Amino acid sequence: MSEFRLTQISDTHLGRRFPGLIANFHRVSEHIDANRPDLVVNTGDVSFDGPTSRDDVEFAKSLHAALPVDCRYIPGNHDIGDNPTAIGPAPKPRVTEAHRQQFRDLVGEDHWSFEAAGWRFIGLNSLVMNSGLAFEAEQFDWLAAEIARANGKPVALFIHKPLFLNRPDDPELPETSIRYVPQPARTRLIEMFGNVDLRLIASGHVHQRRDFSFRHMRHVWAPSAGFKINDARQDRIALKETGLVEYRFSRDSLEVRHVRAAGQLDIDIEEVLAQLAGEC
Ligand SMILES: [Fe+2]
Ligand SMILES: [Fe+2]
């Protein structure tokens, strides 16, 4: 295969009780059906609340299973819980092995690696980092082997949380420590990828669309497919909209397209929370 077309969706936050988010997912599904990429990757927060609602996870998977193309997934904090940081309050709920297993049982593998169009693609579970769970060390061992297999090929990394705001040595601030891969896991990851040609880091989690390069690495933050978070609740770093990202990989090029599906609406988080409150 000389060219590999990949569509990234993220932060779908699906649950039966959120008709607006379901409608946005259907608009995205129609777009994917019309464009038929080789692979769809959901970079996490696939479900609305995996730790308290197994049904959210089952429902989210059922909508993805209806897509006419292959899908891969990595978990988000809303699927399996969040990871501890060195500073700031501990995020709740904390990631657990039971919820990681639930994700793997109902949705799919939470970390993966494959080769296409001369690239090595790696998907990582970023929520277990700093957790002390046995799988944290297991995944780092697995990653070291997969990085060795890249063997000179360009690498594309998919991960729920961005590695950092602007630079690897950004100070970790208590108010934003849960937004990025926490230290010391961040430094360890950067060092592990230091000997390969890591060209793309595709993330989600922030619900903002961003695209920037640091040295030779391109960082693409996918927006949420479902909803945006207003400025009163979250600082504005980049573009707040719903949408998706399309990539074309070939041996000598990488193209990135910032796309909104026809009919996809900019639902605000207040609307989602109102639906949640109305249900209780
Ligand atoms: Fe999210
Ligand atoms: Fe998230």
Describe this structure in words.
By secondary structure, the protein is of the alpha/beta class. It has helices at residues 19-35, 54-65, 77-80, 97-106, 134-150, 185-192, 269-279, and strands at residues 3-9, 39-42, 71-73, 112-116, 119-124, 154-159, 197-203, 210-214, 217-221, 227-228, 244-250, 253-259, 267-268. The longest helix has 17 residues, at 19-35. Bound molecules: fe (ii) ion (2 copies). One fe (ii) ion binds at residues 45, 76-78, 160, 205. One fe (ii) ion is lined by residues 11, 13, 45, 76, 78, 205, 207, 224.
Helix content: 25-40%
Strand-residue fraction? 15-25%
Work out the helix count: 7
Helix and strand content put the structural class at alpha/beta
Count of the domains = 1
Q: Biggest sheet: strands, sense, closure?
A: 6 strands, mixed
User: What's the total count of β strands?
Assistant: 13
What binds here, in terms of ligands, is: fe (ii) ion
CATH top-level class: Alpha Beta
- How would you state the average pLDDT, rounded? 95
Radius of gyration: 17 Å
How far is it from the N-terminal to the C-terminal residue, by CA? 50 Å
